[in-house]
Amino acid sequence: MVKISDIAKQVSLAFLFLLTCSQLVRGQEYPEPPEGMVYVPAGNFIMGSKYGDPDERPMQIANTDAYFIDKYEVSYAEYAKFDPYFVIPEGKENRAVIVTWSQANAYAKWAGKRLPTEKEWEKAARGTDGRTFPWGESYDNTYVVWDKTLTRGGSIAQPESPYGCYDMAGSVWEWTSDWYQPYPGNDVPMEQYGEKYKVMRGGSNFNNHSFIRTSHRYYILPEKIAAYPVGIRCVKDIE
CA 95, CA 32: separation in Å to the nearest integer? Predict the structure, then answer.
């Protein structure tokens, strides 16, 4: 039997999609992004999933202000400009850098930016239509940087997210500014919830495709990343 609440949610999601389409059709004047960044407009989007892991629920209509976000993950060469003592592994200059949360946060501040919230990261990755992957619904290995020798944006298909970001699935995990907390309305207990673990997004090149879904969340101790390659994608507020 179909629940009335499920029908209402489907109607709400359909309305959001139509509203987004109408906004695109009308067209808008968008600010010019800083070099290496793309623009994400203010407004609603579909966040979370009712089919994924318990911490992705409930699927919800979320909202962000407008912001800029890096088109690519920060490279080893870019990070070394911030930290002159940082040693770039040979041949990795244009590969996504792997750093702790405090290193990522310090780099973002130095660059005049900041780390994205979970909402900002997910919106930039999936747009407003609730897609499973940054490029759509169908999974394809050629869309993902799996090979650790590949540079940023080095996948065969080179897909972009709806706003023009690369490698938001695979490559390295990406830090967010948020502590690992339940979404409002989620009453499934998790002992990891609190202000101990930071949220990382996007999966990495050793994960299977379920980890690189746009709604997937994972937690990690901010300064202990030995088992996880985690990198940086910054955002910048629009003044």
Answer: 26
How many of the other CB atoms lie within 10 Å of CB of 194? 11
Each residue of 160-218: pLDDT tens digit? 999 999 999 999 999 999 999 999 999 999 999 999 999 999 999 777 788 999 999 99
Specify the pTM.
0.88
SS3 of 95-158: CECCCCHHHHHHHHHHCCCECCCHHHHHHHHHCCCCCCECCECCCCHHHCECCCCCCCCCCCCC
| pLDDT tier, 27 (very low <50, low <70, confident <90, very high otherwise) | low
Q: Domain residue spans in the chain? A: 4-237
CB 162 within 8 A of CB 198: no
From CA 162, how far away is CA 127, in angstroms rounded? 5
Structure tokens that stand for 110 in this block: 């130095």
Which class is 4-237 in CATH?
A: alpha beta
